[in-house]
């Protein structure tokens, strides 16, 4: 992987002093992932280019990754600019990165004309522009195409930046933003990365319009770290789960409104023993746990990892015994019968059914309405008619949604299901309703018909 | 003195301290059969005599007793058992497991007991304690029967105790030593004419009395017995006639009969009890009124003597009128009898006012077949190894028999509707609910699948559940998943990691002499199920997911169905399960290729020339760039080779245009697994599909050779080199004998080993894997885990096909398929 830095400041060869690397030599350094070279393909008074070339040794790289991943052997690490390159950059140009220079201190302190090229970098032209343009660069990012047999553009761009920028700033921009674009750090991100980010981002990150994205990606999507970093940068909280993929404006309030609507429905049917089917990370469970009128709460999900998340969110291991005894988390798949789900007052399927393939939905109906048979069932699902209000949304609201229904489709399903299993059903909208499209979320409240003894 | 004790029972020894209970127990039973209160006090309190620990000790003792009884093991409790509350605990445990509680009382003179007590250093209580115990014993003797002990043996004095012998008696319901064959006949309800013709159909000859009434029937097969599931009487035209025939057959040893609820009620009426005259009982009473009173007495005696269920044929067959759940097989208690007579109801009633029955058959997981009647159904259908034979003859349906062990169904239609049903016969759901239960798959599970045994760790099951729950096709249709396949032993041929010579050596070592080399298609594994009717047809991936979605899957299945129709007809099967590869790779894996493989290619092909140009310009300035340029040039060549490798599996497709299937194994059809057929058979069928529709099917090129023939081996190697030289993935070398081939020791052999092409492996091991130092390292790869995984998954798959062919319950097939998916979560190098 490669990056080149060119200046037309005269004498251009002063670049060698600023980088503390003589243009007349080939410099090589051993780094943890291979060998880094600093070479000058051109060096005269008008124009001088320094190239940082990292020759990645796949064996050294492999030693650092998890075992048993195919991508360990077939990957773009030797070719695309990434955190490997930025680590090498930090090591090789340490002095220049600090803005220090023994030989040319004045030059190190002022903007100079620079051209930067990174020939292979993960990212889209628009993201590259969003990241570098606010920092004063004029950006050209050309997508690298696939071969004709495959067609279209790859996920890589050939990036060129030009501008009048202090060399140390330019290096810091690259140091932070190359891994941000690459979005796959090659090492474990520990809390001390926050400090590195803030140090390298000094003077430009706080005002950067994409600072949220930068912090999240730089800190390898570790939410807690990103939040801390952003707080330190005096930034906002990030948004929550199900709506995370939606355009920004509509996020948090709907999730809260939906949760409140479900809680209200539970209260309405007087439920105290409640199933949260498809509980996910535990957003609803947390709310249920706070309300002591719910005496038994079971969160069920098919994914063990999300159950672990839910346990952490509820702090199950720290709750006093009596509190903890109210809550259980179990793994189940709603396409099987499960005796553990029988005998509850109510079951909640909040934003769950749309994650089930339509042909498998009857199995879920049978497992929930036929076998578990709670006195009440609360189902929420998106109203697809409302999607027109999500600017920029193409397709469905979440990448795992198998379908999204209109109000008519949901109503038909609800009434057929109610008929088949002996429930009555009422449907209501959740969230701010629009006159023509209705509310963003639709909620069905099923209550069981009294059984003749 | 001989003490009769049921084979399965809870025996409570009753006696004062020093009466010789432990000695008696030690004489008659194995130490593990005897649970002594002293021992359990010791376990929980480190002191056998610590009376304060008795509560905890008995709790544990009852728990252990329960576990033993649940497993069907005789259990003896060695404790004084002088207090009624102590005995009540034991009766409760026995009842919970539906076994008979038995009391054996050891009654020795107090003086003898005192002598023995004084001789023991660890017994420090005084004589008055013994006196109190003795008083309790006297009081107990009169209470034992009332407390629920079904057998009470009292041994008086030291001599009688010493002389006692235990004799085990079988339960009435234990007829395991009868192996039939049996003709099991459903609810007759007084339909004598239909019973006569059914018996005739089954080859029985009726024997008639002087008035021409059938009183017995005989069969040419001497051991054949008729088994009646009860409800002989009520509603129909001639209940006495049916009784006369069945009673005669039973008396002659030609038939076995269990009682139905209707017999039960009739007997209560005949015994003078007050019962409601409903559900056809008045008709029976009226018919009996015309009979000789002596006959009526016989009927009463007959019914009173009926045993509520039988366990037959080494425990493989259970017959009870209303069915029987597994925990009750071979047990005796009031609730077992009640279940056998009436079944279990949920307490709800349906729209006809009839009780809603608990669907015990749906939950049944036992290995014994349960045959029953009681609930009229339109047609007999196996549900989880249970079958109801009541086809509503008296309601105008049919009288049905099941032949055992052939499982053949024989039925005669009713001459007419004799009695109007409250609920129409057809109102029963068309498809019985056999729905899969989560308990069949989650948690740590041990599976004996016939070809071996495996334990599915809970975490693998959890991972499989996530895939199955979120992505798979209906688990009941998902009757098989393709096993993983191990590569051949790493080759030492220069420049090669895998080479035909190793593949042949592997099979030779497994004792295989004839092999088929099949071209390995590089696409996506696809399992296809097609049928004559098209109902339930599906195509799924190696993890059980639907392939493209209905819009493409349906037309694809229609093409396969059309081409396969003559084969289905010829094989006389309604459906066919086909193992195939769907081509091209890009059709299903387009996204993966773009994101992963082609992306790396594009990045490499852009990065290396850029780096080379920098290095060349540096060299042009007269600087020494050393080996860097050579390394970059080698890399550039490697990335080109890599790109060419994946590119040959990318072909344009548009909808189904350009998509094809390469079938290679025909796994199963209705009632049959084709795993034992040789590969010539399989591939000949594949060729016929190709001939029928060359556009949608791709042939599999192959060579059959004897491993003893070096010339053939050389030719096959040449063939492989040509195949892989032209961009082919490689080949699979399989034992010619077929998927179920065995090795020299008769154990299941690997179904094949794969031998992948040199260039193809670049997309697996990376563009630069052919460098000598990398090859050397890769040759050290460990294949052991992969091989054992491949064999296990293969065996599970074969077993699934076997069970499917046997008509096993859905859960029995599913647990194996699920185990294959779970095995895929094992940490095995995915590049193998």
From TrEMBL, chain A:
Q: Which organism is it from?
A: Actinoplanes xinjiangensis
Cofactor dependency? Mg(2+)
**Catalytic EC class:** transferase
InterPro entries recorded: 3'-RNA_MeTfrase_Hen1_bac (IPR024026), Hen1 (IPR026610), Hen1_N (IPR024740), Hen1_N_sf (IPR038546), Methyltransf_12 (IPR013217), SAM-dependent_MTases_sf (IPR029063)
Superkingdom to which the source organism belongs: Bacteria
Checking Gene3D superfamilies in the record gives: Hen1, N-terminal domain, Vaccinia Virus protein VP39
Q: Which intervals hold domain Methyltransferase type?
A: 275-377
Q: Which reaction does it catalyse?
A: small RNA 3'-end nucleotide + S-adenosyl-L-methionine = small RNA 3'-end 2'-O-methylnucleotide + S-adenosyl-L-homocysteine + H(+)
What EC number(s) is this enzyme filed under? 2.1.1.386
Its name, as the record gives it, is Small RNA 2'-O-methyltransferase
Coiled-coil region(s) at which residues? Answer: none
Q: Which GO terms describe its biological process?
A: regulatory ncRNA-mediated gene silencing; RNA methylation
**UniProt KW Oxidoreductase keyword:** no
Q: Its family? A: Belongs to the methyltransferase superfamily. HEN1 family.
- Show the PANTHER family listed in the entry: HEN1, SMALL RNA 2'-O-METHYLTRANSFERASE
Q: Which residue intervals define the domain Hen1 N-terminal in the entry?
A: 1-233
Which keywords does this chain's UniProt record carry? Answer: Magnesium, Metal-binding, Methyltransferase, RNA-binding, RNA-mediated gene silencing, S-adenosyl-L-methionine, Transferase
List GO molecular-function terms, semicolon-separated: metal ion binding; RNA binding; small RNA 2'-O-methyltransferase activity
Note the SUPFAM superfamilies from the entry.
S-adenosyl-L-methionine-dependent methyltransferases
TrEMBL record, chain B:
Entry's Pfam families?
A: AAA_33 (PF13671), Metallophos (PF00149), PNKP_ligase (PF16542)
- What is the top-level taxon of the source organism? Bacteria
Its Gene Ontology cellular component terms are: cytoplasm
Q: Where is the Calcineurin-like phosphoesterase domain?
A: 181-376
Q: Which residues form the Polynucleotide kinase-phosphatase ligase domain?
A: 463-827
Keywords, A to Z, come to: Kinase, Transferase
The GO terms this record gives for MF are: kinase activity; phosphatase activity
Q: Which Gene3D superfamilies match?
A: 3.60.21.10, DNA ligase/mRNA capping enzyme (3.30.470.30), P-loop containing nucleotide triphosphate hydrolases (3.40.50.300)
Family annotation (PANTHER family): BIS(5'-NUCLEOSYL)-TETRAPHOSPHATASE PRPE [ASYMMETRICAL], METALLOPHOSPHOESTERASE
Q: What is this protein called?
A: Polynucleotide 3'-phosphatase /polynucleotide 5'-hydroxyl-kinase /polynucleotide 2',3'-cyclic phosphate phosphodiesterase
What is the phylogenetic placement of the source species in the record? Bacteria, Bacillati, Actinomycetota, Actinomycetes, Micromonosporales
